[in-house]
Amino acid sequence: MSSPATPASRPTSPLTRSARSARTASPAAASAGTAIAGTAATKTASRKAPAKKATAKKVTAKKVTAKKATAKQAPAKKATAKKATARTASARSAGAGALVAAEPRTALVRRARRMDRILADTYPQAHCELDFTTPLELTVATILSAQSTDVRVNLTTPALFARYPDAAAYAGADRGELEEMIHSTGFYRNKTTSLIGLGQALCDRFGGQVPGRLEDLVTLPGVGRKTANVILGNAFGVPGITVDTHVGRLSRRFGWTDETDPERVEQVLMGLFVRRDWTMVSHRVIFHGRRCCHAKKPACGACPLAALCPSYGEGPTDPVVAAKLITYGPGAGP
To answer: Which residues are catalytic?
Structure first.
């Protein structure tokens, strides 16, 4: 009996061989793949590191640039603020000037006189703040008040008036002695020349007496229209508008005129007010300019004319702050 046939070995397919090879090689391949991946990650990380550093440098550079830009902008902002302040001041000034041009004549007269009535209520004691007893003393005191203050002049004149009681005394004065006596009022050399010339002119042409007419007064040494109006209004009772620094400045600030020449300002104010009030209008405006409506920082928030003034707001408008700016002359009151 024949033995059973041994099954023939089945041939191995190429696919089977490949699978076995793959299974055999897989651990090594995995190790190689891991190494390759690690190398790639290292390379990627090394690339990213400089990129991060570059980014950090860029951020730092941006911050530095921003700081420089801010530093440059600061002065520019200050300059812009200064320009804005200048424009505001110019606009305010232009506002008062525009009002002069636009306000009807009748409305201007009424507003100006109403403002004067308010000032009369506010300063009932307004007067010439130079001390004097005669027309000559007032003439001398007014000459000395140029580029000085009434307070300083009033400290100087008692001894001066005692030493030089009349025009003849000034005409024959020793120049050095007179200069020494009035030295504290400033510009004492020019003023000494004026006082000696005044005494000589009064003795030569007016019998040693101060004349009571404008056209005569303005011919005297040291006497212009302003001084002449002071003398006429306060020593002779002849009404006159005195355009000193305060009257000129406030007349423009109030919108009464936009003129800058004192004589033109005088003519404008003469047309706004009744003749009998001219002298007192000047006193009241001067009082207000010295006490409230200061040149650099007017006390707008404490000003009785605020509702009628086109320049309201040039100074502090807060009542408490403005009240601290109010000043008072000696014995003058509010």
So the answer is: 226, 244
